[in-house]
Design goal:
By secondary structure, the protein is of the alpha+beta class. 43% of the residues lie in helices and 14% in strands. Strands 1-3-2-6 form a 4-stranded mixed beta sheet, covered by helices on one side. Strands 4-5 form a two-stranded antiparallel ribbon.
Amino acid sequence: MLPKATIIPLSDFEDEQLLAIKPTRTAGEYCWTCTPSIILYSIRKFGLSNCTYLDADLFFYADPIVLIEEAKGASVIITPHRYTPMYEDSESGGTYCVQFVYFKNSSEGIAVLEWWRAACIEWCYNRREPGRFGDQKYLDLWTTMFTGIHVLEHLGGGVAPGMFSNMISNEKSVRFGVKNLLANNYFL
């Protein structure tokens, strides 16, 4: 049980636009399509000053407040993939990952969310097309289209297996790598 969690059923935020495109998407694609909608709904419904979307497979080894503080008041935080050369996929998969995305309830933050929602309703599929891939490739446009966007620099934000292997490639064991992650406030 999660006593501090608020479970929001689809029916609470699904509107005519979402319901109209729902039959055209797989379950996974529809989840991606709904990402900006649930964030926008949560900010508006609960009067939140900010909202952070987290992928379900994230794990924090330390307090992630340092990630928010790094942005120094920016309205949106996006996390780069930081692909290793072996897994480089920026061109088709995107430079940024939706895994950890922060939005302030500000004109800048809401403008990005509303644009992202419209884009995902128009097109959000699990296939790679020029400039598009699910809900993720849209993030590549934000730093040039909008103001108030902060690209996370802290290496602890968005540590994925591909990056993790790069960080410990010269070490003798994974155990040392995990200790290093913890000592440096890295997060998964």
